[in-house]
Fold this protein.
Amino acid sequence: MSNQASSLSEKKSVSDADETLFPQVEFDEVRETDYSEEQYRRLLKKIDWVLLPLMWVAYGVQQADKTGISTQALFNFRQDNHLVGQQYSWLSTIFYLSYLVFEFPMSYLMQRVSVGKTLSVLMFFWGVIVLCTAFAHNWAGLMVLRTLQGLFECTISPSFLLIIGTWYKTSEHASRSIIWGTANSGFGVIVSLCMYAIGDSAQKHDSGLAAWKGISFFLGGTTILLSFFCWFLLGTPREVAWISKEERRIAQARIVANKTGTDHHSRREWKRDQILEAFLDPSTWFLFCSVVLAGLPNGGITSFGSLVYTSFGFTSLETILYDIPRQAMSIIWFLIVGYLCRFPNMRFLLMLFSIIPGFIGLLALALLPSSTDFRWIKFGMYFMTMSTNINGLLLWMHVPSNVGGRTKKSAVSSIMFIAYCVGNAGGSQFFRAVDAPRYIPALIACSICLGLEFVFVLTWRFYLAYQNHVRDKAAESQGLTPEQVKELGAQNGEKDITDRENPHFRYSY
């Protein structure tokens, strides 16, 4: 009776308005041993078939929307909008500055309302913004549109990390996230072929719609359509309608062993002590610096990659086609890394390995002669940089895998995406108009950032390994078995305490 009374009390804490708009289901505490492995496997298969394809398409669409101006720049986008000097660079920078400013408020909104519903509404609005880009005719108008696009798009990556953390075990985080992470390149191939067709058609019909305008209509319309699917299918176990009440309990039981908490209660309060801990935790700042250093080259290359290709001596349409093999290889590398992440403590080693080809490739691009005789060597060097695409996603996995406490998780997620915005916004400014078309200083700066990222990730790995060693020694001194440590850690995680407060939590690296 006491459990039923507690459950009813919790349900009454949710306002009637919230319940009407965003119904959220509560259920009793469960343990991992309450269900069989067959029940877990059956539910996991259902989760994968519903969530992963939708997340793959959604993440691919947002990446295409965000970086579409790089391809549009090949088709008189800058000339038609009278962009001069650094104005094109600022279209990328303002997007990430807006992303930065609104990241924390949007994370707060998602915690207070609903992850899936909030994201789908904002997706609809950013689709409208992308579509409206086709009607721009000057820099001021584009700056307003890119600012609004950053505001609406800032929710997708944080919400995906929350969704992954509430549906999947820690051991599954990297492999599942990498699947939707491949959309950057996988969906990019599809979009590239569509944009090639749009560009080819526009060049054959000079009096028709400009290619860059057609690309805006295509990308914006696709996003608006997708937002309706996300409204009905995307969210945490509490929010979606495509699983039964019993399946919600199984979903909760699957992830109690993560020790970072589940979403079975509507934890809407923000805990100040967890926010303070987020800022005092050394891992937060290892994460911040690593994400900034990964974002600086990423921000520049995503906005100027197409223009770098044309400096090799390729035409606009050739640039679109010749980038497809790089995207395809990126998918293969993502899948290889996803498979290897199934083994314990491989994530940081794979990040370190991925940095090396990118560092070499960018440095070689800057040092090679400007002659078009070296175009295919330069193509190969630029091709090598695809290995670094995985690092941003692997860094993000620190939040669902290694951060305990709902409020701390939201705070660290916001800090991480602030770092992401700082890096990407600054990276666009590396590429100065006076350095066109080769942008040699920018390429050298990007390679230096990758070298520094290598140092930070390596140091961070040693720090996490040391933290686990200290906790293992403490557990041994108390006479606890590994099984007891796992059980106690899971119990503490369900109390919404942080990873540092939970002595039985172990970091993955």
The chain has one domain: 55-237+274-493. Confidence is low (pLDDT under 50) at residues 1-27. The first helix runs from residue 2 to 12.
